[in-house]
Structures are given as structure tokens and as C-alpha cells.
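It is worth pausing here to work through a concrete case rather than discussing structure prediction in the abstract. The textbook approach is simple: state the sequence, then state the predicted structure, then interpret. We follow exactly that order.
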Amino acid sequence: MPLTGKQKAGIGVGVVIAVIFGLMGAASAAEDDDEEKVDEDDSIDVFNSVFSNTPKPGKLYLIKKGDNFSTIAKKALNAAVSGSGKTYRNQMKYMKCISSSKWNRTLYGIVDDFTKNFPQAHTSPDNLSIRSSFYPRHQDARGAIIRREAPVAGVKEGKYGLLWLPFVSRDALIAAGEPDCANQKYEDGRSGLEPPKVLYDLWEKA
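Step two, the predicted structure:
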């Protein structure tokens, strides 16, 4: 049956309304995408501000294939005194600082049976070791941080550990010849054994 002029007009109005709502929905989705991109950009900026591709005190470092604990600690200490003419080969105390970081122990701490033959210098006071961080069997911690999620232990995504390398005082290191990690603090009083609050704020304020 042919449509009347009034029916055709009604269909036309319906199509226009549908198009308008369709455009509004697309615009809303685009705004959501833009907001998500801004959030991700902010997360990347924060991550990059506390990350280094080479071992440095006061930075996150993503372990690479072939890395070992002793070399990472040595490179970090030498980076701390770069330009002073000093080099450090006795990195045992700094290795203990790294193992004592709650960030590292929470994500990569393994108890006695895994580490019973591992040197005590690599082990934190409560007998936890972070040796597992050198095996590619962990979560993509960087990816979690960019998504504003707290990294967690036990997620097997085939990644190496993302270690926090605690702060050291360059002057104290040069003068005393050993790191003083325990005495390093942020302005808010938090220990330099842990990453800065700006990192935790990504998921705590998400």
C-alpha cells in the first residue's frame, strides 16, 4: 500500500532523529576515547619520569635477558657517582637494599625453598629473595601501570621483573664508599627504598 504524505513525513523525521542520536553517540564515544587517551598519556609521562633503560638509583629498571643482580647493582652505583672518577665494584650492600624494597619483595619475593642455595647478600632481612625477577614469568608491570592498575605478583605474562632501584646519596657514596639507602627519604617522609608517591597515585586515584 502506498504511503501517505503524512506517513512519509513521519519516517523522514524518524530518520533525522536517528541520525542525530547516532551522531551524538559517536561524539560521546569519541570523547570517551579522547579522555582515555589523555589518561594513558598522563600515565606514560609518570612512568617515564621514574623509569630508566639503564640501572640508576631512584629509578625503575626493567630486567633484560642476560642481566644479573650483581651487574645491575654495580652499574647503578657507578651511575650515581658518574663524573667523580670513582667506580664501585663492591655492590653487595646495594643488592641488599634492592632486596629490602617492599615493591621488589611484594612482586618478586620468593621464600626459602627457592633460594636456599642463594648467597645471603642477595636476600632481605626477613629471608625473602627477589631472584625470581630475573626469570621471564611475571606480569607486564609497565602495561599495568599505564592502565592505572597496581602491578601484582603471580600473573604470568612472560615478562622480566620491573625492579625499583633505591635512592642513594652521591656525596655519601663518594665519601663513605658504600650506599646509605636506609637514610634516603622523600619530602613527605616516605622511604627512598620505595618508588615515589606519584606512581602509586596513578591507581589509587584512578
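Step three, interpretation. Helices lie at 5-49, 69-80, 92-100, 102-108, 112-115, 141-146, 170-176, 197-204. Residues 51-204 form one domain.
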